[in-house]
């Protein structure tokens, strides 16, 4: 059980040369079947890498002796489309059994989610190994909630040597996808505990959100994270400038002075956003625990379990 060595581009060029093409093909099919799924898969990189590095611990199902991360506070009823990773793994195991790690699948699939929806494409560094365990407690303690403000986000990202620019650029991942009413009820009806809406929300947008998420709504109803939620572009930042951010953790990036300059820059220059986003994703992808790992044959189980079933 070795720990991962240095990451590099083309890691599978000899052992599984078609790996990246296989991942992209499955992602393309998943998008055709359900457009939202690729945004859901992209989020895995964030939720995996922040908790003990990029090691696919996120993908492990609970066992009698281990509480996995899928039911952690920021993941339960929120993360979805795990079956897309299962499909990718199945296709890779057919082509190159026991070669490509689930941790690398997450990194490749996140990149493909962006490229397939109109965003930048980039060369990913690969060679990660899969963790032997997961930690629901650590995931619950680390991952930010939709209520988080920019100041807390800056503190969190700095712990991983990610800059304010990285924070704002990576928040642009919300250029695609949807979020639940559950995440914004307090913004609409009780911001700061005063029974009033968040004053930062544009009134016209608030009226739209009130219709989408009335007080008696099923809070699993979802709304688009920006006005072009199937297209990876800089509309997300334009929406923040206009007071039309869906989540509090998004809108606070414009109301907070340290992050506002980057929101403004990215709203005006999509190329600058794309460049900073790629840089941030590469840095995020470098986070590693240094713990021993393996190449799982089933992303939901460590290999010793997979044999027993």
Description of the structure:
With 309 residues, this protein is an all-alpha fold. It is 47% helix and 2% strand. It has helices spanning 19-33, 36-49, 82-95, 102-116, 136-142, 150-158, 164-171, 185-189, 203-212, 235-241, 248-255, 257-268, 270-285, 303-308, and strands at 178-180, 222-224. It has a two-stranded antiparallel sheet. The chain is globular, with a radius of gyration of 19 Å. The model has no long low-confidence stretch (mean pLDDT 90). Residues 6-303 form the Plant heme peroxidase family profile domain. The record marks 43 as: Transition state stabilizer. It is found in: Secreted. Its main location: secreted.
SSE inventory with pairings:
Elements: H1 19-33, H2 36-49, H3 82-95, H4 102-116, H5 136-142, H6 150-158, H7 164-171, E1 178-180, H8 185-189, H9 203-212, E2 222-224, H10 235-241, H11 248-255, H12 257-268, H13 270-285, H14 303-308
Antiparallel strand pairs: 1-2
Helix pairs in contact: 1-3, 1-4, 2-4, 7-12, 7-13, 10-12, 12-13
Output the keywords:
secreted; mainly alpha; two-stranded antiparallel sheet; single chain; 14 helices; about 300 residues; globular
């Amino acid at each position: 059980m070795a720990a991962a060595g240095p990451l590099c581009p083309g890691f599978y060029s000899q052992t599984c040369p078609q790996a990246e093409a296989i991942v992209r093909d499955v992602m393309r099919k998943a998008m055709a079947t359900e457009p939202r799924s690729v945004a859901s898969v992209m989020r895995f990189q964030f939720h995996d890498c922040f908790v003990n590095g990029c090691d696919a611990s996120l993908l492990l199902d609970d066992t009698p002796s281990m509480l996995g991360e899928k039911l952690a506070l920021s993941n339960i009823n929120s993360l979805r489309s795990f079956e897309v990773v299962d499909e990718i793994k199945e296709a890779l195991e057919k082509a190159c059994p026991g070669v490509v790690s689930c941790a690398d699948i997450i990194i490749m699939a996140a990149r493909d989610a962006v490229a397939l929806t109109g965003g930048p494409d980039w060369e990913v560094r690969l060679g990660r190994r899969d963790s032997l365990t997961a930690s629901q407690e650590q995931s619950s303690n680390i991952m930010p909630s939709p209520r988080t403000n920019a100041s807390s986000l800056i503190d969190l990202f700095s712990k991983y040597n990610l800059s304010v620019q990285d924070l704002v650029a990576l928040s642009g991942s919300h250029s695609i996808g949807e979020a639940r009413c559950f995440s914004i009820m307090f913004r609409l009806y009780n911001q700061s505990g005063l029974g009033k809406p968040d004053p930062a929300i544009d009134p016209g947008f608030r009226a739209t959100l009130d219709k989408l998420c009335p007080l008696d709504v099923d809070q699993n109803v979802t709304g688009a994270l920006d006005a072009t939620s199937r297209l990876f572009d800089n509309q997300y930042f334009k929406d923040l400038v206009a007071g039309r951010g869906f989540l509090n953790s998004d809108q606070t990036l414009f109301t907070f002075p340290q992050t506002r300059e980057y929101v403004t820059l990215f709203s005006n220059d999509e190329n600058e956003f794309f460049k900073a986003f790629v840089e941030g994703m590469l840095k995020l992808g470098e986070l590693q625990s240094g713990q021993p790992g393996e190449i799982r044959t089933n992303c939901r189980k460590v290999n010793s379990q997979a044999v027993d079933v």
